[in-house]
Amino acid sequence: MPVKFQNEKRSEMNKKLLPFFPYIAPAIGVIILLIIVYLVYNNLTKNSKRDDTLNNDIDENKLTYLKSQYLVFADTIETAIAGYGTDEQTIYNVFSQLENDNDVLELIQAFGKRWIINGLSLYYDASLPELLSYELNSEERSKLNQILSNKGIKTKF
Ligand SMILES: [Ca+2]
Fold first, then answer.
1. Is the N or the C terminus of the chain less surrounded, counting Cβ atoms within 10 Å?
2. How far is residue 119 CA from its own chain's centroid?
3. How many angstroms separate the alpha carbon of residue 83 from the centre of ligand 1?
């Protein structure tokens, strides 16, 4: 009978596949892990994505530097933040070179959203204000804000 024949065929196939069953869950786990590693690696190595949401607040004629300079500043801050601990002095040095609010906002935009390995943890899609709030304690943030207000800059972190 055709129905019986089909059932026999199916159970035969199950017997063939049975030895592989214990490997299915670990194999799926490995595949998911590889996808995660790929996504993290991809985001860590790609260039940061510029954020243009503050464009309306920036008067480009009042920028102190060429736009490429803000990218250099942003990369310098990323290096100061990445890894264990924080190089606060480098962060202060960068902000000391900014002259007005347009410069600060342009730096935030040039920084964009970044994936940064921070010791054993990972900052993903983090903006400059977010990273500064994670990496600087309240005392260090006050010092940063003092540097800015000394220049008459209204933006605070
Ligand atoms: Ca760090």
1. N
2. 14
3. 5
Q: Distance, CA 84 to ligand 1 centroid (Å)? A: 5
List, for residues 21-43, the tens digit of each pLDDT value.
888 889 999 999 999 999 888 88
pLDDT digits (tens, 9 = 90+) for 52-87: 888 889 999 999 999 999 999 999 999 999 989 899
Tokens representing 152 are 């008459």
Backbone angles phi, psi at 126, to 5 degrees: -100, 135
> For the chain, what is the domain count?
2
Q: How far is the CA of 150 from the centre of ligand 1 (A)?
A: 26
Decide if 155 is inside a domain.
Answer: no
Distance (angstroms) between ligand 1 centre and the Cα of 6 equals 62
Q: Which residues form the domain of 79?
A: 55-150
To 5 degrees, how large is the angle CA 59–CA 91–CA 50? 45
